[in-house]
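Below: protein 1.
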Amino acid sequence: MKNAFTGGQSEHAAEKRERAPFARVLGWARLAVAVLVAAPLAMGVATALTQGSSPLLQGRVDSTLTAFAIGAMLGLVYGAPSTAIVGLPAHATLVLLRRKGPIPYILVGLVACSLNLLVISLTTGLETAQIFAIAPTALIAGPLAGAIFWLVRRPDQIAR
C-alpha cells in the first residue's frame, strides 16, 4: 500500500530501509566473529579427534580437553590470520559470484588449511613424517573451519 508520507513508497520498503543500517552492522559483526572463531574452534575439535594419531601430541596431553585447548590456541595463532588473508577475499568473491552455499566455503577452508600447512612446514623446517602426522588434523580442520565460517556468517542471507 502506498503512503503519501513516504514519498509514494510502500510502508514495507520504508521499514526495510530503516532496518538497513542495523543489518549492515550485524553483518559486519558476524563476519568478524566468523574470522575469529572458525579456525580456533575447528582446530580444537580436529586436534581433539586426532590426538591419538598425532606423534606430536602423544605424551604431551593428558585429556581430550587439553588437546582441544592446544588445537584452539594453534588455530588462533595460525588459522585466524589464514582465515583473514585467504578466507575474507574468498568470501567476497563467493558473494559476488552468488555462491552462497556451504560447499564452496568448505572447499575454501580445505585449500586455506592446506596452504597454511605448507607455509608452516616451510618456515619451521618440519620433516616429511611430521607433516604427514599433522595432515589428518589439517584435513579435518580446514573443511570444518569453512563450515563454521559459513554457519556464523550465513552468506545465503546476504541481501543483494
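Below: protein 2.
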Amino acid sequence: MMKKAVAYFFLLAQLIPGTVFAGDYKMVLGKGIEVCEAYLKNLNSFPKAPPMVCERPLNPELKDFQKPEWKALDVGENFALLKEILRYSYKEKGGDFEAYYNKVLPTLKNNITDRQIKLSVTQLDVDLDGKLENVLRHEIDTCDPANESLFATPGGREFFVLNEEKTKIDVQKTKKIHLGGRLDIFLYKGQISIDGWGGNLGFKDGVIYVYTIEPYATPPSWHTVHRCDYNYAPSKSQRKS
C-alpha cells in the first residue's frame, strides 16, 4: 500500500510542468521532539519530490511510520453520512439547517454523480482509551498542487469520528481532529498524527504542519497538540526559468 502511494506521488511530479519541483524542509517548530525529528527525516528523504501539497508520502524504509488502512465506502449507499457532515459544518452558522440542506442538495447530488466526493473509514484509538473508534475520511474535489492555497479551497480532506453504527458524527471527539485544509493521518510508533500543507498559491510560504493526539491531565483526558512545523524551500536549480 505504502509503495503504491510513493509511486503515485512521483507520477504526480511529472504532471506539474513548468513549476517548482524539488526542494527541502526546515524544521521551525518541534526541535528535539522525537516525532518531529523523525518526520523531518521522512520529508527530506524525497529530495526530488514536488511540494507536498496534496499528498505527503512515508518512506517505507522508516519502519516507525505507518498509514491507516482505509476502506472505501459507496457514497450513494452512505448518502446519509454526507448530510451529517453538512450538519456538523453548519452547526456554528445557526439558522434552519433543513432549509440550507434542501438548497445545497442538488449540488451535492451533482458532486456525487461527477465522483468529486470520496468517503472511506478506518478504526483508530482517537481518545486514547484503548478502544478503537470509527474514523471517517471525507474528500471533495481533486487536488491541484499549483493552485492550492492555505485552506485547500474549494477541495479538501477532513476527518470525523463516528458512532459505533457509523451513522452519526461524535461531535465532541470530532472537534479534536477536525482541522482545515487537505489533511492526512499517519502513525508514528502507534501515535496518531495529523499533517497538512499551509501556504499561498504557487507554493509561496509553504509549510507542513503536524498535530499529535496526546494524553491530557483533565477530562476528556486527551487533546490535539500543534507539535511540528516545516518550512518548504524550493531548490534553485528546479525553479522555472
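Residues 2-238 form one domain.
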